[in-house]
Amino acid sequence: MRIRILFILCFFCLSIYSQQFRDASLIADLNQYYNNNGVAIADYDQDGDLDIFLVSYHAGQNNISRLLENTNNGNFIDVTSATGINQNLEHSLTIELPENYFLGDRLSASWGDFNNDGYPDLFLGNSNQSELYKNNGDGSFTNITESAGFQVFCENCYITGALWLDYDIDGLLDIFLSDYHPDSPNKLYRNLGNETFELVDLSSVIENANSFSAISMYINDDQYPDIYIANDFDQNNMLLINQQGSGFINQAELYQLLDPYDGMGLATCDYDNDLDIDFLVTNIRENSFFVNETSNGNQFLNLSEEVNIYDTKWAWGAIFTDFNHDRYEDLYIANGFFSDEENEYFNNKASPEGRYFAHGSLTDEPISETQSRSVNSFDYDNDGDLDLIVTSINSVLKFYENKSVDTYFTDDISGSWLKIHLEGTISNRDGLGAIITIEDDNNHMQSRLYNGSGFQHQSLQSLHFGLKDANFINSISVTWPNTGVETYTNISANSTIKIIEGQGMQVINNNTANKIPGCIDINSCNYDSEATVSNNSCEYLSSGEVSGPQLVNPLETYSYTYIGGNSFSNYLWDVVNGTIVDGQGTNTIQVKWEIDLEGSIAITGSNENCSSNVVEYNVVMELPSIDDSNYSIARLWNEILLDGIRNDFARPTVHARNLFHTSAAMYDAWSIVNHRGDPYLIGNSVHGYEVPFEGFSNELLDVENSTAAISYAAYRIIRHRFSNSPGWLLIKDKTDNLMNLLSFDIENYDVDNNNEDPIALGNFIAENYISYGFQDGSMEETDYENQYYQPVNEPLVPIFSGNSMINPNRWQPLSLDVFIDQSGNILEENTPEFLGAEWGNVNPFGLNEGDMTTFTRDGNIYNVYHDPGMPPELDENQETDDYYINSFAMVSIWGSHLSKDDGIIWDISPNNIGNVSEESYPENLSEYDSFYDYYNGGDSGMGYSSNPVTNQPYETQEVLRGDYTRVLAEFWADGPDSETPPGHWFVLLNSINDNPLLEKKFQGSGDVLSNLEWDIKSYFIMGGVMHDAAITAWGIKGWYDYVRPISAIRYMADLGQSTDETLSNYNSNGLPLIDGYIEIVNEGDQLAGESNENLGKIKIYTWRGHDYIQNPYIDEAGVGWILADDWWPYQRPTFVTPNFAGYVSGHSTYSRAAAEALTLFTGSPYFPGGMGEYIARENQFLVFEEGPSQEIKLQWTSYRDASDQCSLSRIWGGIHPYIDDMPGRFIGSVVGIESFNYGAAYFESSLSIIDLELPKLRLASNPIYSDQSIEIINTIGNEIFELYNINGQQIKINSINNQHRTYIFHQSLNPGIYILKSKNINWKILVR
Fold first, then answer.
1. Number of Cβ atoms within 10 Å of the Cβ of 582
2. Which among 449, 533, 743, 1237 has most CB atoms closer than 10 A?
């Protein structure tokens, strides 16, 4: 029965080019099947049409593997229950796989006629219990697994693929099983001919590996099939060369076929029709395409890059088929694992250099991203072209009908074709292993190897050839596995022929499907569920039109209304190059347009049973006049820059620098043409880089000069800095489009006339910022690589339990099968290096040398500003050990807050959140536990009795704590759109600048500034502050090289527990035992394991991790007991933890620095109106699990409240313990104030060259002893000094000046770190 679901599809972006397929999932009744692995094809009932076996992803009441019978009417029906294929086995994964690598408990299906009775039998590869089903020939099957000699239950088996082949050429199909479990070997079973099999010993040939799939080929040109095996996790693939049926030897290295990457799928072809069989190995972004050159005396050549299929994302199944009948095999690849990805379709094309694969247009519809797995092609309707079927583990089955032979719809036929059905008599009945070569009447030759094998499937069907314009086939040569070559001549094209070994050839009936005409659009009002072909009879609700502005300004919000036509119960809007701000589902929406040349709106209305046609509405964008614009030219370019960051790798240090340099360049352009303030770089010497400049003057208006100079400066810098970004093409289009909107010539590179021409000035500014960037210590010329830093610990592979690191106090790299950063980009390396380990050596903005300490390690320099001193270590010192243990243990405890199911309600409005008093900050590590609520989460914030700006009460917002904490962890991770933390604060700055309640007075006084001046100055300050925060935090990270929670928690878990010395698992550096949070696994515990192998281990009550998330759209991991050595932070499984050290928290440093800068710049500590807000929509915001279960509004009264919330989010996110957080907050406060003051000085026209130099005041000595006075040299007597401890509390002091030296007296200071502040400079004082 066809399931009817109302799908609303938008077709407003149709290509002008011809698409190869149409989506026929609905009309074939295949749109009701979800979450599948393998898909195998065969005519199981021998009625002349091809049927489907569909493997479910995992066992479940509504998720079973299914046999789908072809009705020959254009659709399929489920006949599983009538066939005897058992669905009640326990595939309950009793084995341990690498964590997060659950691939399903039902995996593959392989058809093969093992008893040569003419009816395909079926082998199902599963976890633990694989099955062999004998086809009884009457529509039913019998499970003969045990009687045939296979294991009924195999504790460690995880059979991801089964390959039927006749390896010993006895006419009987044997079977090779690919096992993904590293402790379970691949297996070869020999067919004994009496419906039983025996295991062949391969132990001397192959080692255990994570094997995904295998395929048979003839590598050494004898008649015995060889086996090629694809292995995961950078393990060498294996090539088993058949020793004439008596055994195998592994010769992958000899044939240059090791391919040590992440082997998954395998597919054979003859892509260039040279009559040699080539093959593809799908990997993760580094496929291998091995072209057979053995006939020329060479080995296989990997030409994946040359033929344009090297990087096809996270690739699984692949199929080569001549879909368009041009004589050359095309390619389809299924993609996606941890995240959804688009599958890829390629046409086989010719070039002067040879054949290659070019991206083709699959269908008229937008291709949705999924986590696809298996792909197969077959002629479902027997019309002569091959159709396409693709499974997905998290989405609906997709079935695409080929339009090469399209007689039902258009009477079009693209190219001739031939299908050949083989029947062996001495060879195996299916003819598996045969090689077929044809020559058409145009003397074009093609070859196919018949193995039927692909990722998670093996199929039995006719071999298919596209013939282009051929009318006849001159010859067909079949090389049978057992009997050699047979040749047939003079066959008509567009035929299906059957060749029987030794008995000749016959043309057989195509058995073309008899499709049922009717309305096949499920969105129509007269949809016919029985129809399988359209007769153009569909009727729809009458459509109206869209009303609203068609000429729009970027960044502005406009209203659009659907009017006329039927009244609908639901309205589905889709917007291109804009964002729906409000109104989705209603007849009126609010759209905020992006910066682009044009955009579009599409709407489909629907009622309970049917819908309207799609109504489209196009808009054109233009920039308003300067006087009418709400957004300055600086704002436009800042938005382009933020888009660039979102489409680049997530590198917070690099993007803090990009934000600063671009903002400073725009400031210099504004300053020069408006003769206001002093430029930062142009006309000055900055860190030894001099830019002579004689001034600027012309007759144009300042606004014209500003627009041109700012635009060219920003345009050139952004294009330079992002030219190697993964999203470069999109970034390039965005930058070019804005220049087009501005009517600027992007080919104008003039720099010579920079004293008069604003375009030349902009180019000149950009040229110098780019040049300065090559010598600022960032190592931009080597893509920001570290020059000497090396980690002391070997990488942690988090998919495996535990962690035996060398030094538990130092950072540990993570090694992942694939690393996807927070922006969604897949990194080339599996073990990313420490990002920015030497960033403390980069030229700062407002940091001063007096706050810098230079350390050396292995003879290499690490500059550290505002050195906070050593964090607590595990070093046999009981006090520091306890600080370390308790801090990291709290991270796992806060993980228990990451579920809504505990029912705990919090008021997260400013009534209850924020307003942390200065007095509550801890003075030392012993007070940290009281500042943070160790067990319940949160800090000592008191909230506000009323809005400090309006004096009105805040509305309460009571939500589930588990929703709030998860939203926090995701929102503050890298910003809502992955702008990285420095970019996130620019997003917040722009939202503040857009608030109509903001009075744009610098530091809250004086004249109201224009939008341009406000933006220019605020970006300059914020950019400088973020850059200095990055240099400070990463200088500390690089030097102290401190451990992250995932390493520390797993390490301590491996050691045991540190609470009860009487127990055998006691270790003074283990995790503390805390009832309800951290306990010991005892007998009878569900975590003990089947053999009690986990007794005595440590378990923790926390977020359970990604093993409990199969579909992130509907699943939540929840909270529960897990083994501590399997702990994961609340992050994407392909990201886990940022690839740099923890101490100090970059988020805390960036955020507190930004909060202080905003407070000073705006003249108020509060958001405009006393409220900043971000809304996370119900079940739309979270990325790797469902949620939140309700709408969550993140609200902040002050900028510091937002900063404090960001700091807490990193603990809930499992990224930082509190010993990373608090020093970051304090240092960020110092940096924010220090860098703001430095930057604000540039706004004064009296700034002189000497003012640009570092302050001359110097400490006489540092460190000092507790009873020693602080001495400052080069003072003049009117300086004011203040002393603070590291927690921001002021210390009482007295000072005396004598002969340019100031002596500061204090009561005896406790050992620690203190900050001495003056107007223009701060020092970090170390007291011993």
1. 12
2. 449
The neighbouring-strand residues paired with 76 are 70
Q: Which helix (H) or strand (E) holds 1226?
A: helix 1218-1240
Distance CA 996, CA 331 (A): 55
In whole angstroms, give the CA distance from residue 23 to residue 14: 14
pTM of the model: 0.77
pLDDT exceeds 90 at position 1307: no
How many helices and strands in the chain, by DSSP H and E?
Answer: 16, 71
What average pLDDT score do residues 1003-1024 get?
97
Alpha-carbon span 1033 to 1226, nearest angstrom: 11
Q: CB within 8 A of 708, min separation 6: which ones?
A: 744, 758, 759, 761, 762
Is residue 1270 helix, strand or coil?
strand
Tell me what percent of the residues of the chain surpass a pLDDT of 90. 74
786 vs 1109: which has the higher pLDDT = 786
Q: Are 1281 and 1316 in contact (CB under 8 A)?
A: yes
Cβ atoms of 1279 and 1320 closer than 8 Å? no
Tell me how far apart the alpha carbons of residues 831 and 373 are, in angstroms, rounded to a whole number: 25
In whole angstroms, give the CA distance from residue 1243 to residue 1160. Answer: 14
Give me the residue label for tokens 């153009």: 536
Q: List the beta strands (DSSP E) in 968-1093.
A: 1078-1080
Query: What is the model's pLDDT at position 8?
Result: 34
Mean pLDDT of 268-284: 95
Q: Supply the pLDDT for residue 404.
A: 85
User: How crowded is residue 275: how many other Cβ atoms within 10 Å of its Cβ?
Assistant: 13
Burial of 484 (0-12, 13-18, 19+ CB in 10 A): exposed
Taking a C-beta distance cutoff of 8 angstroms, is the pair 1089, 1099 a contact? no
> What is the separation, in whole angstroms, between the first and last Cα of the chain?
81
Cα–Cα distances (Å) from 1018 to 222, 1190, 1257, in that order, read 75, 35, 29
Residue 1259, both tokens:
């400490």
Q: Is 663 helix (H, G, I), strand (E, B) or coil?
A: helix
- Among candidate residues 78, 79, 56, the one with its CA nearest the CA of residue 140: 79
871 secondary structure, DSSP code: P
Question: Edge-to-edge, what's the strand order for the sheet holding 1270-1273?
Answer: 1258-1259, 1270-1273, 1301-1306, 1293-1297
**β-sheet with 131-135: strand ranges across:** 141-143, 131-135, 121-126, 106-112, 457-458, 453-454
Q: Look up residue 969 and give its amino acid.
A: A
Q: How far is CA 1024 from the centre of its chain?
A: 30
Residue tagged 């003397």 (tokens)? 443
Tokens (6 digits) for 172:
């009987």
Kindly report the three-state secondary structure assignment for every residue of 1231-1260. Answer: HHHHHHHHHHHHHCCCCCHHHHCCCCCEEC
Q: Between the ranges 176-190, 409-423, 918-932, where is the mean pLDDT highest?
A: 176-190
Tokens standing for residue 294: 């053995």
Tokens of 44: 């199981």
What the block records as the tokens of 635 is 């704002």
In this structure, what token pair is assigned to residue 901?
Answer: 């199911």
Residue 230 has pLDDT above 50, yes or no: yes
Q: Give the distance from CA 619 to its chain's centroid.
A: 32
Q: What pLDDT sits at residue 817?
A: 65
For the cut 80, the answer to whether the pLDDT of residue 1005 exceeds it is yes
Distances (CA, A) of 526 to 4, 529, 535, 536, 541: 12, 9, 12, 11, 10
The number of beta carbons lying within 10 Å of the beta carbon of residue 146 is 12
Question: Positive or negative CA dihedral for 12, 16, 19, 22?
Answer: positive
| 3-state DSSP assignment of residue 563 | strand
Q: How far apart, in whole angstroms, are the C-alpha atoms of residue 398 and residue 31?
A: 7
pLDDT at residue 1253 is higher than 80: no
Secondary structure class of 215 (helix, strand, coil) = strand
Q: How far is CA 876 from CA 39, 884, 891, in A?
A: 58, 11, 22
**Three-state SS at 49:** coil
- Residue 408 confidence (pLDDT): 56
